[in-house]
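Can anyone check this?
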Amino acid sequence: MGSKVGNVAGSLVSLYFFISAIMLIKDSAGLMTEFLAENIVLVIRDTTSGVFAGWIGTALLHSSGAFDSIVVAFVSSGAMPLSLAVATLIGAELGTTVTPFLISVLNQVRKRKHQDAAFNVTLTHVLYNLCALAIFYPLELLFGSLTWVATQGGNIFVKAPWLDAVPDILDVVTPWVPVVLGVIPPWAGIVIGAVMLIVALNGVERYMTEIFNMPRSWNLIRATFQKPIRAFLAGFIFTLLIPSTTVMVSLLVPLATSGVIGAEFYILPYILGANIGTVFDVMIAAMATGDPLALGVWLVHLTVNLVGALIFLPLMKPFSKVVKVTADKVAASPRLTLVVTAIFHIIPAIIIAFYVLTG
């Protein structure tokens, strides 16, 4: 009982510091609006650079929730234009795939068994997000479709009278934020807030994992993998409780290498559900800012994952066949794995470097 109470308390404390980190980043960015706006545009100047910056940023932070929450705070402070924020969110979805894929690569180096099943998990995640990028990136680049969604969402949320009250309440429960910013420079506030955000999200993941007893949770998920709708619901519910797609997908890899999850199981519905479940920590961050446009950005995150699920659930069987063929080839060839890994990291780095050098 004591450990459960401790885990609940740890979850609440982590949530408090998550919200506090958003407030610290938002207020710090507000003090640096002109400087940030000028320098963000040096790197993120258009939709393409925004997509790849989101890809790299999320890969470095190992959390789309942390990256997207920082973007939401920047939008609310006026430091980042709405269209560029939307572009980074598109790329962030692909950035979440880096950690699980590297875990599969590490297992291959260690010559673990059932590599085909392990790569089936991670390549389902990678190939789905590549397909989603191929759909949403052109829509945003050519038509600004997702920026339109964010703008319309902002117009709807601006009519919500309760929204203004949220940051006022949070100011009351985080009175130390302006005190800290009176002592440290704003740039340090952004750095400290970002670190606090990552630590807080890791805390939520850790304590919620303990609360919901991983062995029982995984037994439940494993029992549902033969039913696509059940797998979808399991991914949604468990990622809602443990807010990290990266964590929820990464934890499937050891189950695959141990032979518990086979390549024939329905992985895609689970990932689609997990993607939707993970949007709620960004919603909390957006609500904490009290800014309608920030909630509009969150709505883009939700829209991308909902539309992706609607498109790919009916295509589940042919998609899974493509994934299985790809996974078998990658698992059988360490050299091919190395090439794929290098390309996956080098391409976005080259594109961002080009924008920096030509800025």
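Reply from J.R.: I decoded it. The radius of gyration is 20 Å.
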